[in-house]
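ZP: hey, is the pyridoxal-5'-phosphate complex queued? I don't see it on the tracker
AM: it wasn't, my bad. submitting now with these inputs:
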Amino acid sequence: MRDPVSFLKEEYEALVGQDLDWKLRVLAGPSAPWCHVDGKRVLMFCSNNYLGLSNHPRLKEAAIEAVKSHGAGSGSVRPIAGNMDLHVELEERLARFKAAEASLVYQTGFAANSGLIPQLAGKDDLIISDELNHGSIIDGVRLSHADRGVYKHADPDDLGRVLGEAEKASPPPRRILVITDGVFSMDGDIAPLDRIASLAAEHGAMVYVDDAHGEGVLGEGGRGIVSHFRVPRERVQVEMGTFSKAFGVVGGHVSGSRELTRFAYNKSRTWLLSGSHPPAVVAACIAAIDVLESEPEHVKRLWDNTSRFKKAMKDLGFDIGRSETPITPVMVGDSAVAKRLSLRIFELGVFALPIVYPMVAQGKARIRTIMNAALSDEDVDFAVAAFEKAGKEQGLV
Ligand SMILES: *Cc1c(COP(=O)(O)O)cnc(C)c1O
């Protein structure tokens, strides 16, 4: 008899054979500058908790209070019985923070992309993506029946070419949706959203930006990429983001017009058919917005730490790629060397992971570091010293 589940073991072992399986590390205690990872005290240098908010007293307190006042769970999906006053308050606060007419919160950023994208464009429509867009965008596009176009990474001229070709097609697409990450998570570069938005406007296309790594980082007080480029709001019809990165909690969101959010919640299956956030999550997200609005020092500190690290690494002779943000890749080239470097800096007390093929192209392996506002100057210098020692051992500098 054929074993119906033999593929589980075979496919897993094939991954192990290629060294492509994930070996999960265990964090004991909070995501703080100094953490316990697999039993070792190390400097956290790869979390998305840019501003240290996941462990901020105001967020923790808000979560505890919400459990006391509203319970542990919401009891339902939002369209039925799980739409609490806290959910409504969070959306109002977020819309104000983003200077948008309205915001809508999803369970995760992944749920926002995979739920909304296929509703914005379908049969007879065209979705045009940056070639390096995030996997959740790719899945959202796959769920859509729209035609697909791709433009070269962060290249508005190439986007113009794809838009021009679409215009000449017969019949031309009914609707066109241009989608890009705001900050690209492997390289730390920023999408030229101002030029993308003007091109889209010239061609009557919608713009959807996924600002997961830009929020809390770019723009006035961490308001994100739309604020960073001062793009007129009506030119970016969908500004999508997440509470799981700089906001320090969990949850996806989209901001734009009230027509957008009304459409989105009536049509997104991920939103309609999945339970709403527990009160503690919602209250912590509201507190994160409070902190961003009242404690501007975190964003400033993030950028100060980023400059200190980038300058020191460049001075040492490391190749830190084309990053313009607190994501700093330390380019290594060879996958095996990147893995060795990561293990060595871990021994030296710094936690940052290698990013290797197939996550990035062959020969483009790197250690991806993500800066954190909660690090002191001494912490940043400690990380630099670990890279210097390990980099010299590996002959990289
Ligand atoms: C992390 C990330 C997401 C997913 O967000 P979650 O809220 O964690 O599901 C989506 N897009 C991009 C670009 C991301 O970096």
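AM: back. The domain at 6-55+296-393 is CATH 3.90.1150.10 (Aspartate Aminotransferase, domain 1).
ZP: great, adding it to the tracker
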